Amino acid sequence: MNPLLLGLLIGLPFGAVLVLSGLADPKLIIGMLRLKDLRLLKLLVTAIGAGIVGIALLDSAGLANTSIKTTHVIANLAGGAIFGLGFAISGYCPGTALAGAAEGRRDALFAVLGGLLGTALFTALFGFLGPALIEPLSLGKITIPSILGVPALLVALPAGAAAAFAVYKWKTAAETSGPVPAETRRPEDSPVEVLH
Questions:
Q1: pLDDT of 118-159, one tens digit each?
Q2: What is this structure's pTM?
């Protein structure tokens, strides 16, 4: 199957879930980044834990085609800083920005345009910036299992268990503190109610 068509077939329902669940709402994202509303963080930890174990199981069965990218420390730090800054300012990551734009959010459209402009600028400057970002501190294709010399599943299972334990502790802490009374609930508390 054509990879672009496959991406479209996966991306459309993924975007629909983001919008319908409220996860494309920048208030939820900014609340997480300010550590005031951890519902989205709980979802991300759950998805990362399940994904780590799922990919490791598929890989060990020979059903996944994992391609590890080369670790370029300076490029990773610079890219992470730029991404994080844009994420914090706009309240959108690339996926939620596209979902928000499709939903008709004007701020999301500006986030998408900013991302495209940044990509075009980086492409234009890559000949100049590339050597400084990529050549120093290039560590090759490293992973935690390769550093430890163990199969990926031996790292994935404890990581998945730690994620599950963290979400369980969050859930039990929320249950013991009780539900938020309806009269004190904010309008932004409504998305992803299941994660409380």
A1: 999 999 999 998 889 988 888 889 989 989 999 989 999 999
A2: 0.72
192 and 25 in contact (C-beta within 8 Å)? no
* Beta carbons of 108 and 100 less than 8 angstroms apart: yes
Give the separation between CA 160 and CA 46, rounded to whole angstroms.
8
Neighbouring C-alpha atoms within 13 Å toward the C-beta of 107: 12
Write the CA distances from 14 to 17, 96, 130, 183, integer angstroms: 5, 10, 33, 33
CA–CA distance, 150 with 128 (Å, rounded to integer): 39
How many helical (H) and strand (E) elements, i.e. helices and strands, does the chain have? 8, 0
Identify the helix (H) or strand (E) that includes residue 175.
Answer: helix 152-177
Residue 22, by phi and psi: left (phi above 0), alpha (psi -120 to 50) or beta? left
Question: How many residues does the structure list for the chain?
Answer: 196
Residue found by looking up tokens 């932004």 in the block: 188
Query: 93: which DSSP letter?
Result: -
Instruction: State how far the Cα of 191 lies from the Cα of 77, in Å rounded to an integer.
Output: 32
pLDDT digits (tens, 9 = 90+) for 20-46: 888 888 888 888 888 888 888 888 899
The residues facing 72 across adjacent strands are 138
